[in-house]
Specification:
alpha+beta, Aminopeptidase, 2 domains, twelve-stranded mixed sheet, globular
Length: 288
């Protein structure tokens, strides 16, 4: 096998942008990061690369500013061997990886091989399924109304975003950072709220990523007292109809694998699961 490294995001995208766009919903993490890094045009150290078997590319990877290793699989055949090869290369170079985001099988294989070079333990942080919608099914959502969020609602939206992150990631978050994100999303008209028939705001969804050919919906959140009534499904349904009418080829979202009911709800709208996406935190042992 061969490991091909790139000095910057632009060179990486020149070779692999077209390939990643073929399955943009699945490749979105690494593709979105590469676009972001290319736009910044900074001299910060970047690490993008590919693992090849002769002339066939098996997987693509990058390491982001938080030392998270993002891996996108192009070919399933040989992917485990390729992830072991990548682990050997990074381990031999003493590259510290703080987390890994990839298919579950690849996460396990990489970590098992990587810890042979750099002692560490691991813990699952996220276990998600990537879902995609290309046609909206006609359904009858619960009665209510969707609208854009207002500036006066930024503080409650920040609270909801933090509660979403705590429930999903099970860790603490920085309030000021999330407040800044909420303010930005609202100013760009990316936050969609659903009001029930009593005109109470009961659910939130955010178009957090505008991809090349589609849109990624994130921060789908309903306060606990309003759950189980179809509010989130209605909000996502109306949002998908709007996005598709605007010319998006697809909508995509992530759902927790531990809650298959969510996936079934979104399947009724028109979503289907493409692939799993997991994230594991790595904890490095200090040298004695």
């Amino acid at each position: 096998m061969i490991l091909k490294e790139y000095k910057d995001a632009a060179s990486f995208l020149n070779d692999y942008e077209r390939v990643m766009l073929q399955r943009e919903a699945v490749s979105q993490n690494i593709l979105y990061h590469a676009y972001h890094r290319r736009a910044l045009r900074t001299q910060d150290k970047e690490y993008f690369g590919a693992v090849l078997e002769e002339k066939d590319t098996i997987l693509l990877f990058c390491i982001d500013s938080n030392q998270c290793l993002l891996i996108y699989t192009i070919q399933c055949e040989g992917m485990l061997e390729a992830s072991s090869y990548l682990a050997d290369n990074l381990g031999n170079k003493n590259v510290l990886v703080q987390s890994i985001n990839a298919k579950e099988e690849i996460c396990h294989r990489f970590i098992d091989q990587y810890r042979k070079h750099i002692p560490c333990t691991s813990s699952p942080r996220l276990e998600m399924d990537i879902m995609e919608l290309r046609n909206v099914n006609e359904v009858t959502p619960i009665e209510g109304n969707q609208r854009l969020a207002l500036n006066i609602e930024i503080k409650i939206l920040t609270d909801w975003m933090i509660r979403y992150l705590i429930e999903t990631f099970a860790n603490e978050t920085d309030y000021e950072e999330i407040l800044s994100k909420a303010t930005d999303f609202v100013s760009r008209e990316k936050v969609y709220l659903f009001e029930n028939k009593e005109h109470v705001v009961v659910s939130m969804a955010i178009v957090a990523r505008e991809l090349s050919r589609g849109s990624a919906i994130m921060y789908v959140f309903t306060p606990e007292k309003h759950r189980g009534k179809g509010y989130a499904a209605a909000n996502v349904y109306y949002l998908c109809k709007k996005l598709m009418a605007e010319g998006n080829e697809f909508c995509t979202l992530f759902v927790e694998r531990k809650n298959p009911l969510d996936a079934r709800v979104y399947e009724k709208i028109g979503f289907h699961v493409l692939e799993d996406s997991c994230e594991y935190a790595l904890f490095h042992k200090r040298a004695e």
